Task: inverse folding
């Protein structure tokens, strides 16, 4: 039975991915900062195959607990670094971005994923596993107000590229899901109607295509990975 760690799994894209992987028979180690929301998300999944551990991925002990849980399940086939920090809302221009808050964005979006990968690396290599670092078009395009979050995702993209070179036995993907109707995206546009954005569930088939077909490591956009329907 394959095993995955999914961070940021209490809502949005992480929760949608966890549901589909559970339906496919995966054992899951799920993470989120909010214990109540994570517990509710885990309760909707098959009992016995889901280990929900609340905590902050920027915390060393919490990351160790996630990897230990995967090891107890027998190994690790997939690590999805989905947990992200948007930063202040409304999004400030870089000229007035609080440095302390920018440091927290980088701690969550760049340093924590790399640290979790390092902790899980032996387990992943043993299974010739897959790493998915959830990215953003803000890491490629220059949008006013998105300098903090976007630059952190650009850094994560580059880390993914280097990891792919250094760990050729693994698949390392920077996955850009595009705009989605999530709580974090709403925080980026306070007071605006974002109902035209697609639901996270509609993006999951693109990720599944990566996992099923295992193309070469690299950066992939969901819109470039069309899937007519969710295959379970």
Result:
């Amino acid at each position: 039975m394959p095993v995955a760690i999914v961070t940021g799994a209490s809502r949005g894209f992480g929760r949608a991915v966890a549901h589909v992987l559970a339906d496919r028979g995966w054992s899951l180690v799920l993470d989120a900062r909010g214990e109540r929301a994570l517990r509710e998300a885990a309760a909707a999944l098959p009992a016995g195959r889901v280990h929900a551990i609340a905590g902050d991925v920027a915390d060393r002990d919490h990351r160790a607990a996630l990897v230990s849980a995967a090891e107890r399940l027998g190994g690790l086939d997939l690590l999805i670094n989905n947990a992200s920090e948007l930063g202040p809302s409304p999004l400030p221009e870089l000229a007035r971005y609080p440095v302390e808050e920018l440091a927290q964005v980088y701690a969550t979006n760049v340093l924590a994923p790399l640290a979790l990968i390092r902790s899980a690396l032996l387990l992943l290599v043993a299974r010739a596993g897959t790493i998915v670092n959830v990215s953003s078009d803000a890491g490629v395009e220059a949008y006013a107000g998105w300098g903090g979050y976007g630059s952190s995702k650009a850094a994560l993209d580059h880390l993914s590229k280097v990891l792919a070179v250094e760990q050729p036995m693994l698949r390392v993907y920077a996955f850009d899901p595009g705009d989605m109707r999530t709580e974090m995206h709403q925080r980026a546009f306070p007071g605006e109607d974002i109902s035209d954005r697609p639901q996270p569930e509609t993006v999951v088939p693109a990720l599944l295509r990566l996992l099923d077909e295992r193309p070469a490591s690299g950066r992939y956009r969901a819109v470039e990975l069309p899937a007519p329907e969710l295959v379970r």
Q: What stands out?
A: Confidence is low (pLDDT under 50) at residues 228-232. The longest strand covers residues 27-32. The two ends are 15 Å apart (CA to CA).
